[in-house]
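User: What would this chain look like folded?
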Amino acid sequence: MSIISSEPEPITPDAPVALSRPLLTQQWLDLTFVHWAVDPAAVAGLLPDGTVPDTVDGVTFVGLVAFRMHKVGWLRLPGVPYFGSFPETNVRLYSVDAHGRRGVVFRSMDASRLLPVVMGRLAFRLPYVWSRMSVRTGEDTVGYTSARRVPGPRGAYSRLVVRPGERITEPTGLEHFLTARWGMHNPFFGDAGFLPNDHPRWPLHRATLVECEENLIESAGLPTPAGEPVSVLYSPGVPVRLGRPIPPPRG
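Assistant: Here's the prediction, encoded as structure tokens.
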């Protein structure tokens, strides 16, 4: 069991450190964040060594985040329009490490382009899977579909439809907690390495969940969500820069 000695860093709506030499650039567009509360004990064993669940008032959260990845680019090269642009849907948890760095842990990352899936798995050891996906914008709704191909499990799917509302002028503490995450924890080096990111402050809208059918969360080894989500948010998106993975502390 991981023991965290440092106090978690404060939650800030802006990135605490600007990345002067990004490893990757990309845009995250038409995002929907759907979150359910979960007992930290139910997810602690699913986090990388060196991290524990990040919590609010004794609970943590599982997130289903659907969006369009757009023009992924390496270093300062222009983003790739076809292979670097695709729908993606993630199942994620919330983590904090021994340095107090708050982040997310991805349990699954469905994407519709095979090449980025292979590169994400091989280069970053991320749980990317190849899926048949779509993002469709209607008159006042945004819909996302996903059906798992490989490596499975076959039959894993999601269908989300949301209706974005008015823009949020001042997000709540929970809304900042769920969206202002400036890195990911992943076993890049065996233990929990940290890959930082930065981007402009989220433009957020509260949203109505019109439809939600999915088993991606259960397929990712998590308890099936019970009851209504505690938060449904929409964002038109932001440009994002990702840094190089930082090794975990030694000794």
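The two ends are 17 Å apart (CA to CA). If you want, I can go into more detail on any region.
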